[in-house]
Design brief:
Blueprint: E1 2-11, H1 16-25, E2 27-34, H2 42-50, E3 54-57, H3 70-73, E4 77-81, H4 91-94, E5 98-103, H5 118-125, E6 129-136, E7 146-153, H6 159-181
Parallel strand pairs: 1-2, 1-4, 2-3, 4-5
Antiparallel strand pairs: 5-6, 6-7
Helix pairs in contact: 1-6, 5-6
């Protein structure tokens, strides 16, 4: 699988979503930045290493200065996959590329699903349609322009099923994003 030198990612979770997305789109990022290295599965770390992907760590609660890695600031595109931190405002002035976030809540229809734990709130809210979006990252939480959407009729019967369904819609939204917006290098 090809590694895209201009693509970097932030993750705080296991990294399995990134591997699933990469499997669908056929390429990998060259840099992964995480603030939660112990959470990434050993299999996923091995996979990244086998493909020559650099993994860098931030402190669990990073300061503004922790983000200013030259190899990160030189990327053309950064995507966030379960990164559970808000980027510092000054990062937006130093980073000259584009930043996108995947959000497992259909914020185009239900803006109240912005922010933390949208899966739980979607489950509790009994929304008729559920889904995920990819949006540009701005200083406001989940405020950037939505660039890809994937939604389905809400037929879930448990919170676990909600998480799985939103994971599938997230993968579909990312596939749409990369098909429409990524210029291969």
């Amino acid at each position: 699988m090809k590694v895209q030198k201009d693509w970097g990612v932030f993750i705080s979770q296991t990294g399995s979503e990134l591997i699933a997305i990469s499997g669908e789109i056929g390429f990998l990022p060259s840099l992964i930045v995480t603030n939660n290295l112990p959470k990434i599965s050993q299999d996923n770390l091995r996979f990244y290493g086998e493909h020559g992907i650099t993994v860098r760590t931030l402190p669990y609660r990073p300061t503004e200065d922790n983000y200013y890695m030259s190899e990160l600031l030189n990327k053309r595109v950064i995507t966030l996959h379960g990164f559970l931190r808000i980027l510092p405002p000054a990062f937006f002035t130093r980073f000259k590329g584009e930043i996108y976030n995947g959000h497992p809540g259909l914020i185009t229809e239900y803006p109240e699903l912005k922010g933390k734990d949208p899966q739980v709130r979607a489950w509790e809210g009994k929304y008729p349609v559920i889904g995920s979006v990819v949006h540009k990252v701005t200083e406001g939480v989940d405020e950037g322009e939505v660039v890809a959407v994937s939604s389905v009729e809400n037929k879930v019967e448990s919170l676990d099923e909600m998480f799985l369904t939103l994971r599938r819609t997230s993968l579909e939204a990312w596939k749409k994003f990369f098909a429409k917006n990524w210029k291969h290098t």
